[in-house]
């Protein structure tokens, strides 16, 4: 269960980062409300998963899911550049997430 909560925390991090971009520096009301709502959900899910999972593992995987997801959302939905270097960097983040999960005990 803590792994599922951590995964959901990472997904909600992707949502709030996208909504933060849409808020245009917190100048648009509904994207700002969405940002704060999903941010609170993400932190809450992360904190519950940390009851069982080690800090370093949980935080690294949470930020990795958020970073990789935000990168993909930027490329797919916002038209951001996909270069070889950025793709390799994303694959390295994914590799780090997988290795962190595989090397964790709980």
TrEMBL record:
GO terms for molecular function: transmembrane transporter activity. Its main location: membrane. Keywords: Cell membrane, Membrane, Transmembrane, Transmembrane helix, Transport. Signal peptide: none annotated. GO terms for cellular component: plasma membrane. PANTHER family: GUANIDINIUM EXPORTER, SMR FAMILY PROTON-DEPENDENT DRUG EFFLUX TRANSPORTER SUGE. This is Guanidinium exporter.
